[in-house]
Design goal:
mainly beta; nine-stranded antiparallel beta sheet; seven-stranded antiparallel beta sheet
Length: 466
Amino acid sequence: MKQYLLLLAAFAFLFLNTLTGCDEEDKQEQFDDTKQIESFSFEELAPVVTGVITNTDIALTVPYDTDVTALTPTVTHSTLASLSPASETTQDFRLPVDYTVTAEDGSKQVYTATVTKEEPPLDSSNAILNFSFERLAPVVTAYVGEGEIKAWIPDLSAASNLTPTIVISENATISPASGVAQDFSSPITYTVTAEDGSIQTYTTTIAEETEVDLASGPAFTWINWYLSVPIDNGGSATSIYYEDIENNNLSEDAAPFFYPNDDDSYTMYTKFTGATTSGYKEINGSGYCRTELREYWRGNQSTSDNWIMDRKSVHGLASTLSVEFCNGDGQTYVAQIHGRSRTGAPGDPATVKVLWKEGELITEHYVKPTKEGDLWTSKYIRKTSIGQVDNEKFTITLLVKRGVLYYALHCEAKGIDVEYTELYDYATNGYIHDNYFKTGNYFKWNDDKVEDSQVILYSARTAHTE
């Protein structure tokens, strides 16, 4: 019996040991060993870029212009595993980045994420940006339009052997090449080929430059002008149109400010009344009063009848005047080129002005803003003294020829005869406002309603080419 009990105890011990061993093995098998990256994507990109996972390699292709130095991936992995670096952690992917997945049981798997940029698209730009004849004196810069190039040169006989300097789109090619002499006696076609193979052709023609005539013809073509006088008209200055000027049909209030003289000139009188073209202003405010002509280029009775400063056209004003008296601070503007806003060119800049200051003539013209976002304003202005005319009769000419501004001044009594002198190249500097001429008596005084100014206008001739 004793032996039987000992044998039974031995069997029980072995059975318990077996059960205990199974429990320990079961406990060890509870720790998960899965350690996979299941998805890897850049959700911040549009469209979302999803990685291709092959074994332990993750490949992602992003758009060519993506900043890969700071991308934030979204990563999913085995539920019970951990990830380093963690999902949603910004990384620099200029080089491959390793991601380590650690399973619940402590085992690890390393994945390598590699980001590749797409090849950039081939450039489709195929434009001629600038076309000029640098060897001519002065240099001639052509008008470049849609499929058209046109240049005006002083001597047409030179057209048979001209060498153009041509600037084209980056990555494009041109035929014939820049810097190769051509016979422009007949039109020449230039072909610009973009990097992607697309082409654009330009037909180039040369014409002889002719001077605009600002010395002959009618002294006034009234259909091309309207008059502003400082008479209150519902809170602003009064406008008088060409029919009333031609017929001398000004109101009793307006007549003292503008009237014809026996020699066919006109007296333009003004003083500060508060009635300005920008509304009624108080003394020492922001506005000035004027008796001044405003141009309608083509004679359309609209303030949208304006012109532009481009390489193709020529626009000129020759105004003959004398300042009889100018009290207050002794300053009045006698001629202007005024800008108007258009698409891409906000603001209405007083781009060019000619100031009579105690007998001295001074040109004031705006130049290209140097600060990004700034408009063409008096913040960027250049002033040039061009002659002392005092109260004598003089002719001031403003000419915009192929986008370049010139002035000329003639005053016989003072022996002044200044030929066309360049002031500024507006076309090159990206000026795209609409414009119109003004002339008369724009009195720079608003301290009181007593001081006054009077100008005699003998002629105001304009000329335009398109």
